[in-house]
Amino acid sequence: MKIGIMTYAVDLAALAKKAEECGFDALWAPEHNTMPVRIAPMNTAYRAHLEPDGTPQPLYRSGKFVDPFIALARASAVTTKISLGTGVCLIPEHNPLLLAKQVATLDNFSGGRFIFGVGAGWLREETQIMGGDYDHRWGQTREAILAMKQLWTKDEAEFHGKYYDFPPVISFPKPLQQPHPPIYVGAMTAGNVFRRVVTYGNGWMPWLYTPEQIRDGRAMLDKLAREFGRDPRTIEVFGRTRRGRARRDQAIRGRRSGRDRRVCYARRRTRDAGRTGTDRRQTHPLTDGSYRLRSASHRWALAAPQ
To answer: Most buried among 124, 165, 185, 194, using CB within 10 Å?
Structure first.
């Protein structure tokens, strides 16, 4: 199983270099472009991002998310092997003409190491502020991805849809990976995600699922892939389970569930050498290079039966 790490609100350059030295497979950057001060409580079956009263957890209310493309570009400049991915890019909040250029440029500058993790967003207020159609965000996401595929693969590309419509244009550069970087479709609930993956994706990104849920999802994904004439082996599954700290038995269960990639969080160091329980150093909130990489997660994953 391939092991990657994810973090937020930091300069990824120093972290990426250390992660590559430790042997991690990928570095993932999440995205939230803006966070409204007032957020209405949400009534949804999926509660992983919410407090008991339905409001987003403090992390999301804080708005402490850097731009993933700039952060990953910095990471690409100091590394040569580790893959670099968005986890995930909120597609309805972007213009596909601009986003296609950002993706292709990063893929070129990184030497073809970019993984395009995509999602539609779960916070209505954020999506609407950024100009997206929250109630139809997945339809908007589908159109944007189809439009970007045209821009990535044709010298003169055009697209005519409900949400995006443009005449023949020239988009440069083209991605280094052909026909385009792998597209991983993120989802917090199953719904129609499997159909989306086999229609326009290369991977599924379940988030905080149990190994059993991932195993069942993998089976459904394989079934749909065959129905659509695709080889299930060309579709990867990547995600983070609901379990707590990583253990060897979880690596084995994760592999048996059909998951190809796993993500762990890289946490900033919070304790000093003493017993104060806090790190008293004065550091810049973005460029502090002290991280607590859980390299043990990588070791037990490599040791798990393949």
So the answer is: 185
| 303 DSSP assignment | H
Is it the case that residue 263 has pLDDT exceeding 80?
Answer: no
Residues 6+ apart with CB under 8 A from 216: none
Q: If we measure between CA atoms, which residue out of 99, 104, 81, 190 comes closest to residue 141?
A: 99
Residues 19-61 have pLDDT tens digits of 999 999 999 999 999 888 888 887 666 666 778 887 788 877 7
Distance CA 160, CA 170 (A): 16
The amino acid present at 109, given as its one-letter code, is: F
Cβ–Cβ under 8 Å, residues 27 and 303: no
Q: Which domains does the chain have, with CATH numbers?
A: 2-303 (3.20.20.30)
pTM: 0.84
Any idea what the Cα angle at residue 175 is, between residues 83 and 90, rounded to 5°?
A: 65
Cβ neighbours of 147 (radius 10 Å): 24
Please check whether residue 237 is in contact with residue 209, taking contact to mean a CB–CB distance below 8 angstroms.
Answer: no
Cβ of 148: how many Cβ atoms within 10 Å? 29
